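Below is a filled-in request sheet from our internal design queue. Each sheet records the structural input a requester submitted and the sequence that came back. We keep these sheets so that new team members can see what a complete request looks like end to end.

REQUESTER: design group, bay 2
PRIORITY: normal
MODE: inverse folding
CHAIN LENGTH: 119
BACKBONE (tokenized):
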């Protein structure tokens, strides 16, 4: 990941898919969702995709139960409902650590998907 633009706040377009992926009764997801006010962008993928590395002050929020990665997954669809890729949420030691966006096509997905494109 490219860390040349690090430390910035988590943009709203990143919060929205994270909220959608973590909005359920799973205890790990609930704990990661509670961390959403605190993460900062610590890196970007070197390709033009929308993937982000995340970091947060661990004193700002309690850790989630540790689970294998990815902590959450979703398929991503285009405007016609066709699957085009997916989104993965990563956590390290119980703290949000990454949001990965991948494609099944040759061109990278350069924008984070809106929640209505996730399933």
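RETURNED SEQUENCE:
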């Amino acid at each position: 990941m490219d860390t040349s633009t690090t430390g910035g706040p988590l943009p709203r377009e990143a919060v929205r898919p994270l909220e959608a992926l973590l909005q359920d009764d799973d205890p790990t997801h609930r704990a990661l969702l509670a961390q959403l006010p605190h993460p900062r962008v610590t890196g970007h993928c070197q390709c033009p995709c929308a993937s982000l590395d995340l970091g947060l002050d661990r004193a700002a929020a309690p850790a989630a139960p540790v689970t294998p990665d990815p902590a959450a997954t979703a398929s991503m669809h285009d405007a016609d409902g066709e699957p085009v890729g997916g989104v993965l949420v990563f956590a390290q030691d119980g703290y949000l650590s990454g949001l990965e966006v991948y494609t099944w096509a040759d061109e990278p997905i350069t924008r984070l998907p809106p929640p209505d494109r996730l399933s």
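SHEET NOTES:
- The CA atoms of residues 2 and 44 lie 5 Å apart.
- Residues 8-117 form one domain.
FILED BY: M.R.
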